[in-house]
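Form P-L/3: holo structure prediction, ligand zinc ion.
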Amino acid sequence: MKRTVLALVAAALLGTAAAVPPSPGSPGLGDPLFPTLGNGGYDVRHYDVSFDFTPVTYDFSGVVRFTAKATQALSSFNLDTDGHVIDAVTVDGRPAAWALSAGQSGQELTVTPAEPLREHVPFEAEVRFHGNGKAPRAGLTGWRFGPDGGFAAAAQSSRADTFFPVNDHPSDKATWTFRVTAPEGYVATANGVLTGRDGGTWTFEEREPMASELIGLAVVKGTYVHGTGPHALPLRHVVPQGQEARYAPIAAETGAQIAWAEARFGRFPFSTYGVHIYPGYTDALENQTLSLFGTGWFDRPAYSNTMVHELVHQWFGDSVTPATWQDAWLNEGPAVYYAAVWAQEHGGQPLADRMRGVYAKLDEVRAKDGPPGRPKGLGGYNIYDGGALVLYALRTEVGEETFDRIMRRWVQRNKDGNASTEDFIAHAAATAHRPALDGFLRAWLYGPQNPPLEGM
Ligand SMILES: [Zn+2]
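OUTPUT (holo model):
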C-alpha cells in the first residue's frame, strides 16, 4: 500500500515536472491518403449543427457548436472548412481569434482561444458561418443539387467540411444534433431520429457515434414514407414528391433486406434506417441511418444489389469505421461481397464466377493502384472488388461457418468504433484459432500478386 502511494506521489511530481507548455494542435492526423484531413489535439464528443438553407438561391447560414476534450495542452486548434465565410468563433463562451489558411482539401480554420486549453479538460466551441452552396470550393464539393432547387450531402470522404467547419476525419466519431431549417414545400433530412419540428426547423438526434463523412443533410422536395423493419425497427424513407407510387414500394423492400443482413451480422446497429431517393444524385452512398441513392439506379433490374451494398455498409463502414482511409477495403470489401451473395441468391451471377473475374483482373490493378490493404487512393477496383476477393479467399480457406463467425464478431466487437486492417488480421486469426491466417491475409491484402486460390 505504502509503495503504491509513494509511486503515485512520484508520478504526480514527475507529471508536474514534465508538464508540457500549450502548443498548437496538429493541422492534420497524418492519414496515409489524406495527411491534413482532421486535426490533432482534441477529440469531439458531440456536435450540434444548426443549418438554415434557402432553396433555389442556395444561400445558407449556420452555427456549429461542439463539445470536445483536449488531448494535449492547446494554444490553438484547427477545424477543416471549405467555402465558408466565418462570422464569429467562441471557445467556452469567450470570443476567440481565428484565421483561415490553405489545407489539402479546402481550408484550415485555426482557432486561438482567449486562454490555452488544458490537457484532458473538456471545452466547448462555437463557429458561426454562412455561404452559398454553389460558391467555388477549394477542394471537392459534397453538395449535390436536384431539379427542385434543393440539395443533398454526399460528403464521403473529405467533403463534410463543405457544409460546416468540422474535424473531418473518420477516426473522430461523435454523436450529433442537427437543426435543419427548410421552407414550406420542402422537407429536411439528417441522420438519426427526428425528435422535433418547430415551424420550418427539423431537429434530428444521431445518438450513435458517427463519422463526419456520413452526414445525411438534405433539404429537398420530398415525401417521408414510414415503415417498420425487423423487431419493430422504425424505418423512414424520403422519396421524390409526386413519385410516391413509384418509389415507396421500392423503399419498402428495405425491411426484408435488413432481415437478410441481420441473419448474417446480428442486430441492425442503429435506432432507425431508411433510403433517401433523390434525382439530384447519380451514385449511391451509405450515409449513417439514411443511405442516399440517385433515382437512376432504380431503372436497372438489379437495383436491389445496390440497396444491399449500402445497407451492409451500415455495419461495415458506419458502425465499424475505418481507422484511416487506407483501411477502406474494410468498408467496400464486405459491401461488394455480400451484395454479390445477395445477387447470387436472387437470380444473379454465381459468386464463384464473379470472383473468378476479379481474380483475373486484380493483379494488374495491384500493380497500378496498390493492393487492397494499401491502396494509393480511394474509389478503386482494388478496395471494392479486390476487397471482396480477399473475403472470398478467406472463406475458401477457413470454411463458411468460421468465416461467418469472423465477420459477425468483427461488427459486434467494434460496434460504434474504429478499426484497422491490422485489427482485422489479428481478429480473423484469433477468432479462427489459426495463427497462420496472419501470413495468409497479409499476402492477400498487401502482396503484389494474388496468392493461389482454389478454383481460379
Ligand atoms: Zn460502398
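COMMENT: Residues 309, 313, 332, 335 surround zinc ion (CB under 6 Å).
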